Every structure is written in structure tokens, then in C-alpha cells.
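Reopening this one. Same input as before:
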Amino acid sequence: MKPTILVTGATGKTGAAVAAQLLANGYPVQAMVRAQDARSAALARLGAKVVVADMYDPDQLLDALRGVQRAYYVPLMQPYMIQAAAAFAVAAREARIEAIVQMSQWTSHRAHPTAMTQQTWLVDRLFADLPGIAHVIFNPGMFADNFLRTIDFAALLGIYPMISGSGKAAPVSNEDMARTAAAILVEPERHAGMSLRPTGPELLDARQMAAIVAKAVGHSVMPINLPIWMLGKVAQQQGVNPYEISILRYYMEDMKRGTFAFEGGVTDVVERLTGTPAESFETTARRYAAMPFARQTFANRLKAFIKFNLTPFYPGYNFDKWDKRMGLPMPRHPSFSIEDERWRREHEAMMARQPQPVAAAERLRAV
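Same output, byte for byte:
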């Protein structure tokens, strides 16, 4: 009998993909969501058991974990995510589950300028210390989604906003992360205590991404540098949570400093664990270009033109003031990840320990 697997954040971009992948592989899935909506209904149609739970409430989390053997944990992107993680740890221990595969960050660092990354470092260690539970850190770098959210500007207006300078990363798709996480969840004990880093197949800077996006949308695209103050205006215009964008600005600075290119920046973890190579950034970009919001229709072009020209008139977020108002903790001596000797030493060792082939794809087809 196959183990039941809980997926938190099951309607999010990575959680939904992991839940769908596990269901396609024949595993019972409990999809944990904040509320019932069209996205949770879609998971239910695929065969998931949808459970509603407050991530900050250990009693609701314990109810969601009853009958579950393994869990894929996606952290909340909220200022107090550490409380949710602690509540989950308490519930997981009481429910006596056998394994947690935890979405972490490549930048995870005790003294990072962002509270999210400091807290991620703490959660890494919190889950690792749970007795009797196999713990695997799922540690991707930059998501391809971060660089394709504005593909409609490229498709409809011929411009590609850049906020990462000449920094490089190997963007990985949500789909490849889902396939890899599902493979780990098949045999988590095989990877217990490891930190696995799935990446895309090549390092790219923003101008190279712009050239690839141009191929995907079928016409020339002009890369333009987007200053942080303008990013704040775009974020407010689109109704994006200011916390998410406040974090993203630091990760883009990480990228500029070479954090995501450290130790070569590219792994073959996706292929080693799934049997299929990670898809190219162009493949991912073509999929985004085919989405309704980026289709090159007159209505979409008009909408994009109006939004683009209204952007300068939005007040925009003041991220420093927002962070201060939230009272987020700041280390005495904050440092970007790659600037810290301990971080570099630990991540050198981590890259050296990436997994050997385990024929996961064959096992998935057999179950």
C-alpha cells in the first residue's frame, strides 16, 4: 500500500505541481489549503483529498496530518513564517509521520538581510532535529517563474524588464521541481539528511534571458533595467504582497553578487532523480508565452499599454519603511550569503554531496 503524502501550499505554484505529479504517479495525496476555491476543486477532481487548515494552528495541522506518512512542506511567504514552521514541527512529531521533504532556499543564511531567509535557516535546523523523522531539504535556486512573470510585457510591448544586472542563475521550472520532489518523496529515507539542489541546465544573465524570451514570443524584445523604485510601483499596481517584493529585491542583489552561480551554479539533480533532463529556459518561456495573459491579442496589447503607461503614476512601495514598520528582525552584522565564509564552506560541501542516479523515474512508472 502506497504511503499517503501531505502537500502544504497545495494551490501554490510549486505545491500544486507536486500534488498533481504525485497523483499522476498513483500516490494518495492530502492537499492542504487555506480555503476552498477553484484551485482546490481542481485538485479534488484529480483525486486529492483537500483539507483546510490554518498553518499557524498546531491543532488544525495535526488534524491534517492524521493518516499521513510523508509530507512536502512549503513555507509561508509571510513575516512570521517561523511560527507556522514551528507549529508544523510540533504536529508532525505528534502525528509520528516518517518523512518531511522541506522546500528551503539556496540562500539560507543566519545573517541574511531578509527575515525570510534568516527564518529559513532556522527552519532547516528545526526540522532536521525532529527525532525519528527522515528530513530532506529541497533547495532550488532561482525559479524560472521569477523571470517570466512579466513575459506579457515582452510579448505585447516588446520590452523585458531586468532587475538582476549581469548576475547569473540557472532558472528551474515549477514542473521540474515537482518531478524532483515527487521522486524524493518516493524514497525519502534514501536522501535523509541531504540538501538537494535542482536547477535548470545553464547559467543565464538577464540579457540572455531576454534573447530567449524573444524567441518564445516570436519577435524582438528590448531588455530594459528596472530600478527598485519602479519595481515598487509595478508591485503595487499588480497588487503583489509588498513582503514578497521586499524579499525579491535582496535575492536579485544576491544574484548580482554571484550567489546563484556559486560552485558552477548548475546541477543535474533533476535528471539524476527523475531520469529526464531539466527543461531549458526557452521551453519554460514558450509555455508562459502561450498563457492567456501573454497571448498577442488586441485586447491584451491595449491592456498592457495602459498598465505600462500608468505605472509611473502609482505611489509605489517604500520597502525600507515597510520593513521597519513590520518590526522585522535584523542581524547585528547582516551579510549576503556569498559574503559569509561559513555559508560558502557549507555550500561547497553541499554541492559535493549531490545525489547519484537512483532510477527514480523507473520506480515511479512501476508503482
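So the earlier flakiness isn't reproducible anymore. For the record, The chain has a mean pLDDT of 92.
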